[in-house]
Design brief:
14 helices, single chain, 8-stranded antiparallel β-sheet, Putative IgGFc-binding protein, mainly beta, 7-stranded antiparallel β-sheet
Length: 1237
């Protein structure tokens, strides 16, 4: 069947290129006048002759049955509310039951039948049916010039199922004004835009069937109705008048959710059955092909811009510029006026012009790669536009390939084939995805698993493409053999092998495996709906419920506080309040049976001096007589005392406090959970369970599900102003009330323009957060982002806060946003050392005090920094379990390896893997149990030495080693273990014996270790240095600095690090990544571990020196910090006040950090910068086998000796099991340490 267009005086069939099967089309009837003798089945039959003479319907659309719906909502036309209207309901199916909201009795229609009903009330009329129906609304007119019902109109009402994302109003007459009714399916009514601007809409009802009806008047001309939320759906009814002429229509086009036509996408190309073809190359270009129809007006919507095209480019504008700009419609905001520019002629001639002509000349060369194209396609327009773009962009010539591509494609479209022009420009080469091959003239309709035999008459039969090799077909984005294709689906769809597919009604899910389809019946929960969200069809729980869609239960509610600050209440009312005091965020209003009462207070402070902006400084929970505080410094306090390690567990109150950077969290056993974000400017979210709904009060609202009563004062009164509401919830004395909210974006146009650019990623249809748009409307968060950036312009501190909380809301609604921070560089989360960012990590991570993490974590999907495998959290840093601190009996934290002995010396405990491990002990008969300094222990009597458990006379050589160990060199002890172990296990066993894997310092010691290990391949204590930024090594008189190559980020003025050494740790702060005459050198533990100093150049006299006896330890990591800001350098032990500081009157810029490499003299070919000794001994000797270290396959990090030839070294996998040699050093000070038996 061929399409037919009916028009006045013309019923000819249009000229198409060829008949097309299964064609869909729309029939238009226009210029139809109705007289008393004309009867139309579309119009009510009770119209008087007098009325019919005045009734003119200039445009009507006959809709196919396939586009009818089952739910409708009607309201009287704006301005005609008192006249009433008539509806006609038509059915095409048998036993159609139609229900109206103003009647309890359903009406039953048979196929081809209809009924009429006169409506006089002014409210909303809802119509539902079990089968698709067509609804027409005849709006009666007001009395005009004594003529009753003198200005009526009729329209086909769009069903609730028929909606789109925006609409364009076309004037049928040159009317003075029009009345618009919008049925908004989803999205905030406040974000409904007219011509890109926020305007006032009259909301006819708060809610019906999940949608809202809005009305307003609009002036004459073209208008665009859109929504700030890119995926908001609506339908539009328009009623316009000019004197007594009337017209009405239901929008321009309406689309079913699943059109019956076929879509073919390749390269990518979209083709419709009615002949439209669109090709987009995902760069700069689009091609639109239309069938041969005369004077067809087309509307093409691409992103936020709609361009109206006509086959005859006629328009009142005379120039091309005027023509183009007069037809552009921007659905986000009013377009700025286009100003033509001539980059090749800037008055004196562009310096880029000669080069642009030279680069573009290939398009016109008679012997060039486009020679065969010159006779069929005029190259001059392409040449001129090529020069234009290059004049504007050089030295960037990336657009050159684009112009060549377009001319080459035009050549192919005209039947010729261009030469290999890509060979003339290396930058234009095409890299095909893996498995596909390049073809300069391939088909746009390739063979696929769904269609092995593509169209022979493909409308795009020759274009550059990456295609599957012969013998394979396209399966999604990969090429497979036909035998590896997936499964056809019962509804005509297709599933790739290994793919699971959900059917349209979510009653069946099928899994394709090896060409066999296995289907399972499923049922959506009664509180869920079958929908497509984030590109996935599934059962999704309704708002207010949570679950997997097949099981849904009441969901908790959330309150968010973020930005300047903005408050999003439990019932999703967002407002801004800039108070600078403490306020009750939420509290129980009276007693609630069975659950505790609580109060949450937030304290705001000024963000920046000179600005009105504030932010959330701290948040406080009071419950069961205790107070818990989370603040912006990243600290938590309980009853005023700081929490030293996480998780903090208060079993009496049912409270757990965790830290998972950047979030501090309070979790309770009664369902209330608080998350405070220390990244940025302080923000929080509060979660409450259903048993508190309707029983709360404060800035977060009452959680009763009603938005109209959100601004309730402590006395129970309801106000309309959020500022007046919030001011009443302050805590204690507040010197000033918060001001009425300003409008910074209106006051500062420059700030507004910058804010729109920075915040647009929130609402971009294909942006980093677009996967959330089906779950949560982003427009309130976008508006909050605009406000915040305008209010602190030109700063951007708040830019990411809105996005972060939008992502949080998306996750609560069931969405799973992708890693958006990687696509918004300004929002990149910088994690502490040894941790990586994850967009869905647990809020209860593995820690030193909880190595397995908490079993039941209510916060299971957060944006946090996560430790890698083998590491756990020690507060905000990732460490190995062996580096964990331990809680001491006094409530503090002690470093790993710390020994504690009880008051009567009957047991000794050592901090191992974050836990004190204790042993029973007995002091030697030559020792006494006493307190020396601040340490209780067994101490050998005078004239004796030892560990207090065993004491030997000073003249004896006993006591230094285990009897099975060897002491060949000045009292050092060496032990050989033949039982194979991994490097890590071997090192741990050596440490338990108060030593470490042997560090070899010369050829004599290497020979001794070789003999001791009987020539077997054995572990020694060297390993590849994978943490050079924290492994500080001692040096001797000659030393050099190794610099971290990455420059310190702007705004970072503090560094933390660990040192394990006997003496002399040196740190450099330099403007460059090398030694420089102007630099700072910090010496810690110099002068044989007795003093520390700050110098203004390497090796020069000290600016300040302080006594720091025994500040370093050869067996323990000691943690330090250095701050450097405005010329002042401070050095201290982590958690303590600085022990050394100095202010430089002429500060040096500090951009790079350096540290000593323990080299004695010139490095030569030494691998000291690559390997270290576990003992932190200087790397002054090495004995590698030729060709080693090789780091084979990138995973050889530990050193073995006796490889192939005795005494030679090799790097090997650390997980391998080998014998090993331990050493206890000869240093007497080392032997005097507190040791376990």
């Amino acid at each position: 069947m061929k399409p037919t267009l009916l028009a006045p005086g013309n019923n000819r069939q249009p000229s198409w290129s060829k008949p097309m099967p299964m064609l869909s089309f729309t029939v238009f009837i226009s210029d139809l006048s109705i007289s008393p003798r004309t009867v139309s089945p579309l119009y009510p039959r009770d119209l008087s002759d007098r009325v019919l003479r005045r009734f003119l319907q200039s445009f009507a659309v006959l809709e196919s049955v396939t586009s009818w719906g089952t739910t409708y909502a009607l309201a009287p036309f704006r301005g005609r509310e008192t006249a009433g209207y008539i509806i006609r309901v038509i059915s095409a199916y048998r036993n159609t039951r139609v229900r109206l909201s103003n009647s309890k009795t359903p009406r039953v229609l048979q196929n081809g039948r209809f009924f009429e009903l006169s409506i006089t009330h002014r409210g909303i009329l809802e119509i539902t049916s079990n089968n698709p129906i067509l609804v027409l609304q005849y709006q009666k007119g007001n009395d005009v010039n004594d003529l009753e019902n003198g200005d009526p109109s009729m329209v086909i009402v769009p069903s609730n199922e028929q909606s789109r994302r925006g609409d364009i109003i076309f004037p049928v007459y040159e009317i003075e004004s029009a009345h618009v009714t919008v049925r908004l399916v989803n999205g905030d009514p406040r974000s409904l835009l007219l011509n890109g601007q926020n305007v006032e809409w009259e909301v006819l009802d708060t809610d019906y069937a999940g949608a809202k009806l809005l009305q307003r008047d609009v002036p004459s001309g073209y208008h665009v109705i859109s929504h700030l939320f890119p995926k908001a759906e609506m339908s539009v009814l328009v009623y316009g008048n000019e004197h007594q002429k009337s017209w009405a229509h239901p929008g321009v086009y309406r689309f079913e959710k699943r059109p019956p036509g076929q879509l073919t996408v390749a390269n990518p190309i979209l083709m419709t059955e009615f002949g439209l073809a669109i090709r987009i190359d995902n760069k700069y270009n689009a091609e639109i092909g239309l069938p041969q129809v005369t004077k067809v007006q087309s509307v093409v919507s691409v992103g936020p811009t709609t361009v109206i095209l006509q086959t005859t480019l006629s328009h009142p504008g005379r120039s091309v510029d005027n023509f183009a700009t007069s037809w552009v419609v921007n659905v986000r905001e009013t377009c700025e006026a286009y100003r033509p520019v001539e980059p090749c002629d800037d008055g004196g001639g562009s310096p880029n012009l000669p080069r642009a002509r030279r680069l573009c000349a290939i398009l016109r060369q008679p012997r060039g790669p486009f020679a065969d194209c010159l006779d069929v396609v005029d190259s001059d327009p392409y040449y001129e536009t090529c020069i234009y773009d290059l004049c504007a962009m050089l030295p960037d010539d990336s657009m050159l390939c684009n112009h060549f591509e377009q001319y080459a494609q035009a050549c192919r479209n005209s039947g010729e084939r261009p030469g290999d022009w890509r060979a003339t420009r290396n930058q234009c080469a095409i890299d095909c995805p893996e498995g596909l091959v390049y073809n300069p003239c391939g088909t746009g309709c390739p063979a696929t698993c769904v269609d092995e035999n593509p169209l022979d008459d493909c409308p795009m039969s020759c274009l550059e493409t990456c295609e599957c090799p012969p013998g394979t077909v396209l399966d999604g984005t990969r090429c497979v053999n036909q035998s590896m294709c997936g499964c056809p689906l019962p509804d005509g769809g297709y599933a790739s092998d290994g793919e699971e597919v959900m059917f349209e009604d979510c009653t069946l899910t099928c899994f394709c495996q090896n060409g066999t389809l296995e289907c399972t019946e499923i049922f959506c929960d009664e509180n869920a709906e079958c929908d497509i969200r984030g590109g996935v069809r599934n059962c999704f729980c309704n708002d207010g419920f949570v679950g997997n869609g097949t099981f849904c239960e009441p969901a908790p509610k959330y309150c968010q506080i973020f930005g300047d600050p903005h408050y999003n209440t439990y019932d999703n009312v967002m407002y801004r309040f800039a108070g600078e005091c403490s306020y009750k965020l939420t509290e129980t209003c009276g007693r609630i049976r069975g659950v505790p009462t609580f109060r949450v207070v937030g304290t705001n402070e000024k963000t920046l001096d000179g600005y009105e902006s504030t932010n959330l400084k701290s948040i406080q929970l009071s419950v069961k007589g205790k107070t818990y505080v989370l603040d912006s410094s990243g600290q938590a306090t309980v009853q005023g005392s700081y929490v030293d390690s996480y998780p903090y567990v208060d079993e009496d109150s049912g409270i757990v406090i965790t830290l998972s950077y950047p979030s501090l969290m309070i979790m309770t056993d009664f369902g209330v959970n608080i998350k405070y974000n220390i990244l940025g400017n302080g923000s929080a979210s509060i979660e409450v369970p259903p048993w508190y709904f309707g029983k709360l009060c404060g800035l977060c609202g009452n959680a009763d599900g009603e938005q109209s009563n959100e601004y309730k004062l402590p006395n129970g009164n309801i106000v309309t102003s959020p500022v007046a509401f919030a001011n009443e919830w302050n805590v204690g004395f507040c010197p000033t009330e918060a001001p009425i909210n300003p409008e910074p974006c209106q006051d500062y146009p420059e700030a507004f323009a910058a804010a729109k650019d920075n915040c647009y990623f929130l609402i971009a249809d294909n942006g980093p957060l677009s996967q959330c748009h089906d779950f949560v409307d982003p427009s309130p968060y976008y508006e909050a982002c605009l406000f915040d950036l305008c209010s602190i312009y030109p700063y951007r501190e708040f830019m990411c806060d809105s996005a972060m909380h939008y992502v949080e809301a998306c996750q609560h609604a069931g969405g799973r946003p992708r890693n958006w921070r990687n696509m918004v560089p300004d929002c990149d989360m910088r994690c502490p050392i040894n941790s990586t960012y994850g967009d869905c990590n647990t809020g209860c991570p593995k820690t030193c005090s909880s190595p397995e993490g908490l079993r039941h974590c209510p916060m299971d999907c957060l944006e946090t920094c996560e430790c890698p495998p083998g590491y756990v959290l020690d507060n905000d840093r990732c460490v190995r379990l062996s580096q964990c601190r331990c809680p001491d009996p006094d409530g503090g934290m002690v470093q790993p390896g710390t020994v504690h002995v009880n008051s009567d010396c009957t047991f000794r405990c050592k901090c191992i893997d974050g836990v004190y491990t204790c042993f029973n002990i007995t002091c030697s008969e030559n020792a006494v149990c006493e307190l020396q300094g601040s340490f209780q222990d067994c101490y050998c009597n005078e004239g004796y030495r030892g560990d207090g458990l065993e004491c030997y006379a000073e003249s004896s050589h006993e006591g230094r080693c285990d009897p099975s160990w060897y002491t060949p060199r000045d009292g050092s002890c060496y032990g050989y273990y033949a039982q194979p172990k991994s490097f890590e296990d071997a090192a741990a066993l050596c440490e338990r014996n108060y030593g470490y894997l042997v560090a070899i310092s010369d050829v004599t010691e290497n020979a001794f270790v070789t003999r001791l290990s009987h020539g077997e391949r054995a572990w020694i204590g060297g390993l590849r240095n994978t943490s050079l930024d924290s492994a500080w090594q001692r040096t001797d008189a000659t030393y050099s600095f190794r610099y971290i190559r990455k420059q310190m980020p702007e705004g970072i003025h503090r560094m933390e690090f660990s040192v394990r050494a006997r003496k002399n740790a040196h740190i450099a702060l330099s403007p460059y990544d090398s030694d420089n005459p102007d630099m700072y050198e910090i010496v810690i533990g110099g002068w044989s571990n007795t003093k520390s100093a700050i110098r203004r150049c390497k090796g020069c006299d000290s600016e300040v020196e302080v006594d720091t006896p025994d500040i370093l330890n050869p067996r323990l990591d000691v943690r330090f910090y250095i701050t450097f800001l405005a010329g002042t350098i401070e050095v201290g032990l982590l958690g303590e006040d600085p022990f050394m500081s100095w202010t430089d009157p002429d500060p040096i810029e500090c951009n790079y950090i350096g540290y000593t490499t323990a080299l004695n003299g010139d490095a030569g070919s030494s691998t000291a910068d690559e390997f270290v000794w576990l003992s932190r001994e200087p790397w002054i000797f090495e004995n590698w086998r030729r060709g080693e270290p090789s780091n084979h396959q990138g995973n050889e990090g530990c050193i073995e000796t006796n490889f192939v030839t005795e005494g030679l070294w090799n790097d090997h996998q650390c997980s391998a099991r080998k014998p090993f040699v331990c050493e206890i050093p000869q240093d007497p000070d080392y032997l005097d340490q507190d040791l376990l038996p």
